[in-house]
Amino acid sequence: MSSSSQIAETWISSFCSILGHEYFAEVSEDFIEDDFNLTGLQSQVPMYKEALEMILDVEPEDDDDDLTDEEDISVSDDMLDNGDRGAAKPDDPYRRSSASRRHQHMRLASDLSVIEASAELLYGLIHQRYITSRPGIQQMAEKYELQHFGVCPRVHCAAAKVLPVGTSDTPGVDTVKLFCPSCLDIYTPPNSRFQSVDGAYFGTTFGCLFFMTYPEVEVGKMLRVPPVLPAAANTIAGNGGAADPANLSSGNWLASQEPTQINGIAASNLAPGLGPGKTYSPRIYGFRVSERSRAGPRMTWLRSRPTDLSELDEVAVYIRDDSEEEGSEIEEDEGGLTEPGRGKSRGGSGGRGVLEYDGYWNSGMGRDGWGS
Amino acid sequence: MEDFNSETDSDYTSYWRDWFISSRGNEYFCEIDEDYLTDRFNLTGLNTEVEYYQYALDLVTDVFDLDCDDDMRERIEKSARQLYGLVHARYIVTTRGLAKMVDKFKKGEFGKCPRVMCDQHPLLPMGQSDIPNVSSVKLYCAKCEDLYNPKSTRHAAVDGAYFGTSFHNILFQVFPQLVPLKSTRRYEPKSFGFRVHAYAALQRWQDDKRDEMRIRLRRAGVDSGFEEDDDEDFDEPDEVDMDAENLDNPLNDPRVNRTTV
What segment(s) does the record annotate as region Disordered (chain B) (predicted)? Predict the structure, then answer.
């Protein structure tokens, strides 16, 4: 009953082969036919039933066939009844009546274009869910490997492969964008034909979920130029991930000198396109433009990355700061108002505290090194 | 191409240059003034860089009248393009050259920044090296201060040295009013609405670098030029906000004290 047995081109495959729809994966009919996957879509898509029929290449059913059949569909959309799945089967002989053919013609004349638009919307919304499912993400992984989504336009990302994402999960908000895992930024697709593809059809989740699903995908394959490494960078980023066999066996030069894992992902996969040596610093006749110039650099932070990745292990930094703070009481008087609150907020948000303490932390490093 | 010899005596003096800047792939070039090209001072040192220098110069200035075979002509043609490019790199940092490039920049003729958060900010061409044949032309976005590859592959054949490493920075020094407001807006990778820890930790670290820079600049009395300057998005540490007068004297800043403990 799935499309694999059909020889004629399905609506789905023809939709995906339209110019500009290159980013789409072909959603399997099994996925669409599982009503659970369609939860809530009925209220978002006009002419939902017809659109679904069009996607599944089902002959539109006859209204005067009988009313129960119609009810079946609407009930199934509400996921109340499991027994009615057959209602949407393309090879249901019941639906291939000549009566339905006649009816189809009437419908064609009236609102085919509306249904077509609805079908596209419905397919897009199903697609958003499908590519976060196991078969869907696998299909997208193949497309990613084949570079179907293109590469990052940023020079220092050295043509890292990108993924299509949306900035919103609501249709009609924004068009599809490309997420580069190497610089953690999003870009407009180079070709204007993608300006008509809705970003919601890919969704906000897919980009991240993809790299969480495939942590072994090498994000910065083309970026194998060793930057200047700090002399002392022991691995404090524990996480127990020090022995990642894949990383070590691949002869990753990073593995020996940096924490192999940081905050749950391989260190070599955390924004490899950023950091020293991969940022642009403006120069005039070889001299760097000062930050204090009115036209000086202001955006270096956006492309920066610590040389020593363990700075990003906020828990370790917090523990370290905390113990140092106990040792010195000099600051107590300084910001009497804010000191206690700061301590709390660090514990609570886990982020701000580290940020506040960064300057301190650096100076501590310079003075003591790691171990003390 | 072949019939330009007959044109050399006409009033239409910029024939070769017209053809050059209007040919496909050379959209980023502007036209160099005749005066500039004929002033030998501006060409200092190029005779060692370019083969058939004299012929190439004649060709560029439309006074070429050597009778030679196609092979030779092809080589001179190539040299002329290289010469034009190298002079171009010098010309576009002059007042007139800058003005021409600013015109093209304002019209967006160099393309728009592909970065979503830059909102289609116009780009400027630049090179990563001033030496020819090192790398192709790249595009600089003044809003995110990063380099991008041109969309079209035909521009990948244009040498970056024909624009140089300094031009776009000089342009913003000369026309500081063209420097766009910077934005702290950024893309936050999220999964099911949750930020991903590894990415979020890096972004917090980066944001901290930004805030450090803004504090540094504020102390130096320099406008940091961010859209969000009026402190909504600016996560400066509370104590700095509260005793603003302390900023004048860095020693009064608790942050400084903390680092010098």
Answer: 222-261
Residues in A touching B117 (Cβ below 8 Å) = 185-186
Span A46-101, pLDDT tens digits: 999 999 999 998 876 555 444 444 444 444 444 444 444 444 444 444 444 444 45
Q: How, if at all, do strands A177-180 and A163-165 pair? A: antiparallel
Please identify among residues 216-275 of chain A the ones whose CB lies closer than 8 Å to any CB of chain B: 262-265, 270-271, 274
Q: By the CB < 8 Å criterion, does A288 face chain B?
A: no
Residues A45 and A118: their CA atoms lie apart, in Å, by: 6
Rounded mean pLDDT, A306-314 = 89
Instruction: Provide φ and ψ at A64, rounded to 5°.
Output: -90, 10
Chain B residues 203-222 with CB within 8 Å of chain A: 203-213, 216-217, 220, 222
Cβ contacts of A367 on chain B, cutoff 8 Å: none
Quote the pLDDT of residue A111: 78
Could you give the CA distance from residue B108 to residue B27 in angstroms, rounded to a whole number?
Answer: 11
A360–B258 CB contact, under 8 Å: yes
Dist. CA A198–CA A21, nearest whole Å: 10
Residue B167 identity (one-letter amino acid): F
What domains lie within chain A, and their CATH numbers? Answer: 11-130 (1.10.1820.10), 135-213 (2.20.25.20), 230-310 (no CATH), 314-362 (no CATH)
**Burial letters A192-216, b for 16+ CB under 10 A, else e:** eebeebbbbbbbbbbbbbbbeebee
Q: What is the pLDDT of residues A146-167, one digit of tens each?
A: 999 999 999 999 999 999 999 9
Q: Output the CA torsion B163→B169→B173→B177 (10° steps).
A: 90
Specify the pLDDT at position A240: 37
Residues A318 and B10: their CA atoms lie apart, in Å, by 77
Which residue among B169, B237, B239 sits closest to A284, beta carbon to beta carbon? B169
| Nearest CA-CA partner of A309 in A273, A365, A366, A270 | A270
Could you identify the residue written with the tokens 């190298």? B86
Structure tokens at A71: 């009810």
Tell me how far apart the alpha carbons of residues A102 and A93 are, in angstroms, rounded to a whole number.
Answer: 16
Residue of chain B minimizing CA distance to A156: B147
What is the rounded CA–CA span in Å between residue A123 and residue B13? 60
The whole-model pTM stands at 0.74
For the record, the structure tokens of B123 come out as 């780009």
* Ordered mean pLDDT values, 10 residues apiece, chain B (261 residues): 44 75 92 92 92 92 84 92 95 95 95 95 95 95 95 92 96 94 93 92 94 92 80 48 43 42 32
Q: Which of A127-131, A318-322, B36-40, B111-115 has the lowest mean pLDDT?
A: A318-322
pLDDT exceeds cutoff 60 at A17: yes
* Tokens linked to B186: 């950024």
Contacts of B173 in chain A (CB under 8 A): 284, 289, 293, 295
What residue spans define the domains of chain B? 15-182, 190-220
A329-354 average pLDDT score? 40
User: How would residue A196 be classed by pLDDT, with cut points 50, 70 and 90?
Assistant: very high
Q: What is the C-alpha R_g of chain B?
A: 25
Paired tokens of A181? 């895992």
- B177 lies within 8 A of chain A by CB: no
